[in-house]
Amino acid sequence: MKVIKYDVKVKVEAKDPKKEFAKLHGLLVGRFTKDERKYKEQVNNILQGNAKSLEINGIKATIDENAIEVEGIKFRKLINVRKFIDETTKKYEIKCGQLNKSENLLTKQCEGENIKIYFEIKPQKIKPIKKTTEEKKEESKETQQSKS
After folding, report:
1. pTM of this prediction exceeds 0.85
2. How far apart are CA 40 and CA 49, in angstroms?
3. How would you write the pLDDT of the chain (148 residues) with one tens digit per residue?
4. Which of 65, 105, 114, 131 is 20 to 30 A from 45, alpha carbon to alpha carbon?
């Protein structure tokens, strides 16, 4: 059985990226974090201008003069990636092109009046960890003991 995960990178180009980050940080980063206090602390540092990036749970968000980049967002199913794109773009009521497929990269571009959002999706195959013969023997012993 082959398992695929989708690694998503989002780039938001806007005139005032801090303002857009204030709107989008919950969708882009906040929904993937469990440590609410640490996350809010890092977001406040960015909004106050004390920091230019945040990293939490493997997701890295950086802000420069005209763009926000978020990388490290991972999904197990393509339908979840599509839902994420829809939720993110719904805030702005912007038009999106189709999901473009190349050999090992999916891209989607959305444009509005004052904002452009680019999505890069990289499908990656996950190889299952193979069990050693000793682990298999231990499992079979445990199942036999539980049956008797």
Report:
1. no
2. 14
3. 567 889 999 998 988 877 777 777 777 777 777 777 777 787 787 777 777 888 877 888 888 888 889 888 888 888 898 998 888 888 778 888 888 898 889 999 999 888 899 999 999 887 766 666 777 677 777 777 766 5
4. 114
Angle of CA points 67, 26, 35, to nearest 5°: 115
Six-digit token string for 29: 């980063």
Q: Which two tokens stand for residue 131?
A: 């069990």
CB-CB neighbours of 56 under 10 Å: 18
Q: Which residues contact 31 (CB under 8 A, 6 or more apart)?
A: none
- Measured at the CA of 104, the angle between CA 101 and CA 106, to 5 degrees, comes to 35
Q: Which residues make beta-bridge pairs with 42?
A: none
Quick check: 110 and 95 in contact, CB under 8 A?
yes
